[in-house]
Design brief:
By secondary structure, the protein is an alpha/beta fold. It folds into two domains: about 10-230, TIM Barrel, CATH 3.20.20.60; about 235-285, no CATH class. The chain has helices at about 20-25, 45-60, 80-85, 100-110, 125-130, 130-135, 155-160, 170-185, 200-215, 225-230, 235-255, 270-285, and strands spanning about 10-15, 30-35, 65-70, 90-95, 120, 145, 190, 215-220, 260-265, 265-270. The strands form two sheets. The protein has an eight-stranded parallel β-sheet. It has a two-stranded antiparallel ribbon with strand order 9-10. α2 runs parallel beside α3 (about 80-85). It is globular. The relative contact order is 0.11.
């Protein structure tokens, strides 16, 4: 299948048994919303939550946020009913937790046959970090993926690192996974999380670092994080104008038979043209140009 996924800067998690929060999230400025059937609902509430997910998908409209559903881990008793509940044309992607090996991604790909649903494997185990490239290439449906981190979360328990606000203990993990998913051709790498709801300064620093690494967006846990993350992962008007000016200058130079040349104090060549074109294409998908 040909993948042309909607661009996701902010991916907001919502408990799948809370229709009120689910609806508010869909109407927010988040690019994507995750209805969480795996870890955000009380025990014994799975059937009710699946009904909530189904109803939200049926009522979903194109102007609302893209819908992801985090199902239970492959191989658990809840996986099949979770997946069945979310198979609907309004579904953008299935989010897979606790992935250990590429065979799990392949199994989900088979289960999604005949649909246009995409896959986002979560990197929550040391095995997933080690095999990130294999996970990313296990299905053409893998459109979103990246190194994630959270305080006292699954990956921290699996690897054994001690979380710090600076994030130095996960620098390698996030960068290693990013290189793997970029090499695999995953179009929209996503990282995260920033787990302290009220520390917006910390979120800002973490999001900027994540963007500077090369990620396209972040998973987030609270609506107050949406505007900060969207802004950081969006090109500014000045950047867009700069790319347009650069493209015009290179095209003019090439028409005159000039390769490398100076532009606004920088040495410019054809590689810069490709980068500017790629950046403008992303801005266009974000409807910023």
């Amino acid at each position: 299948m040909k993948i042309d996924p909607p661009p996701i800067r902010s991916l907001l998690f919502v408990p799948a048994n809370r229709p009120d929060r689910m609806q508010k999230a869909l109407e927010s400025a988040a690019d994507g919303v995750v209805f969480d059937l795996e870890s955000a609902i009380p025990r014994g509430a799975a059937a009710e939550a699946r009904d909530c997910v189904r109803q939200a998908l049926v009522a979903h409209t194109p102007d609302q946020s893209a819908v992801f559903v985090r199902v239970s881990a492959v191989g658990t008793a809840d996986f099949a009913p979770d997946l069945e509940a979310c198979l609907h044309p309004s579904l953008t992607a299935v989010m897979l937790p606790q992935v250990v090996g590429p065979e799990e991604v392949t199994a989900v790909d088979v289960a999604l046959e005949g649909t246009e649903a995409l896959i986002m494997p979560l990197v929550e185990t040391s095995s997933a970090v080690r095999q990130a490239y294999e996970l990313a290439t296990a299905s053409e449906r893998v459109a979103y993926m990246g190194g994630a981190t959270g305080r006292h979360g699954d990956l921290g328990r699996s690897v054994g690192f001690q979380w710090t606000p600076e994030g130095t203990e996960t620098l390698y993990l996030r960068q290693k996974v990013l290189i793997d998913v970029r090499s695999a051709g995953v179009p929209n790498p996503l990282s995260g999380l920033w787990g302290t709801v009220d520390d917006l300064d910390g979120l800002t620093r973490f999001a900027r670092q994540t963007r500077q690494f090369g990620y396209e967006g972040m998973m987030i846990i609270h609506p107050t994080h949406i505007p900060i993350v969207n802004q950081i992962f969006s090109p500014t008007p000045e950047e867009i104008d700069g790319w347009r000016g650069l493209i015009a200058a290179i095209e003019e130079a090439e028409a005159q038979g000039i390769g490398a040349f100076r532009h606004e104090g920088r040495l410019i060549d054809h590689a810069h043209l490709l980068t500017a074109q790629q950046n403008l294409a992303r801005a266009s998908k974000l409807k910023l140009v």
